[in-house]
Design a protein that fits this description.
It is a single chain. This protein is of the alpha/beta class. It has two domains: about 140 residues, 2-Layer Sandwich (Nucleotidyltransferase, domain 5); about 150 residues, Nucleotidyltransferase, domain 5. The strands form three sheets. A five-stranded mixed β-sheet has the order 3-2-1-4-7, with helices on both faces. Strands 10-9-8-11-12 form a five-stranded mixed β-sheet, sandwiched between helices. Strands 5-6 form a two-stranded antiparallel ribbon. Helix 3 packs across helix 9 and helix 7 crosses helix 8. It is globular, with a radius of gyration of 20 Å.
Length: about 325
């Protein structure tokens, strides 16, 4: 007798919440991807994200001819930090209102209890680990730079979350040394000092200040590689900031590999990875680890979300046998 998974057994949904798009992927329980879709967010707010999610969900279910009742589990990749006890989202400063308790309630109203909201960079790390498994590349640090900045330490194929789910929140790394010995009385940046300095929008703003306007980080990177001096200066500074962030991991985790993700890492490609490694090498008294561009690309969060959703779906189904 041969056992198999019926195509009608159900599906899992993975969702990638960004500041411009909500992306969705529908996957059968046998691992076959049915549909991938994305919906533009009309307004950068919790309400805007939820509206895009509703439209995208209706679209992807319709295209795949799947009923909502066929969803066995849903995993949502979210910016910010998911509180390990309450599940409430924290430090999602790029999405106003997304950290309100009502957001979790709205998601649960749509998907019920078969829902997991997880930090997006952790899901990206899971998606990357899945693709690198055959090469036994199970340990690495993933650095994601886009509208937000975050990282994940991956050990044996799984991201380490820390005691409070804060592991990898490098957006809050200080980029300057305090001038006074006394503790600062000012409020820390809600977005984080490193994120304010190194994010994709910061790169575009810095280029504009130098008189060079680019619509995307990809266009900025292309101009830098083509010899534009203003663009090159921005990219060089970005490589220094990325190396600075990675130096903290190099001396504490000693990773065998670093993976660059997010719009900055993906747009910069191998040349940016080489530039970051050169900068990192100049900061360390020992060789810098190899630095590569993400193999999962822009689908990393969806890949990781599907992997996690499939795991949870099978746990749910097996417990009911």
């Amino acid at each position: 007798m041969v056992w198999g998974i019926a195509k009608s057994a159900g599906s899992v949904l993975s969702v990638d919440v960004g500041t411009q798009w909500v992306r969705l992927a529908l996957t059968r329980l046998d691992g076959e991807v049915q549909e991938i879709s994305r919906e533009r967010i009309a307004s950068v707010s919790a309400a805007g994200v939820l509206a895009a999610l509703d439209a995208g969900l209706e679209r992807i279910l319709g295209e795949a001819a799947v009923d909502r009742s066929d969803l066995v589990f849903t995993v949502v990749g979210s910016p910010g930090v998911v509180h390990p006890e309450t599940g409430v989202l924290e430090h999602a400063s790029n999405l106003p209102g997304w950290g309100d308790a009502a957001t979790l309630e709205e998601l649960q109203a749509r998907f019920g209890q078969d829902l997991l909201v997880m930090k997006d960079v952790y899901l990206a790390a899971l998606g990357e680990a899945r693709l690198r498994r055959e090469r036994s590349e199970n340990d690495f640090v993933l650095l994601s730079i886009g509208r937000g900045v975050g990282a994940a330490v991956v050990r044996e194929g799984h991201p380490l979350s820390g005691t409070h789910g804060l592991a990898g929140e490098i957006a809050f790394l200080p980029v300057t040394v305090p001038s006074s010995k006394a503790p600062s009385t000012s409020e820390p940046s809600r977005r984080g000092a490193l994120e304010e300095a190194a994010s994709a929008d910061s790169m575009l703003e810095r280029a504009a200040q130098a008189g060079a306007t680019y619509g995307t980080v990809a266009a900025l990177m292309d101009a830098a590689w083509d010899g534009d001096s203003a663009a090159h200066a921005v990219v060089e500074r970005e490589s220094m900031l990325a190396a600075f962030a990675l130096s903290a991991f190099a001396v504490t985790v000693d990773p065998p590999l670093v993976v660059l993700a997010g719009s900055v890492g993906l747009s910069g490609g191998a040349r940016f990875a080489e530039a970051v490694r050169a900068q990192l090498g100049s900061l360390l008294p020992f060789p810098a680890p190899p630095i590569e561009v993400s193999q999962a690309g822009e689908n990393a969060i969806l890949e990781g979300g599907a992997e996690k959703a499939l795991q949870l779906a099978w746990e749910k189904l097996s417990s009911s046998l």
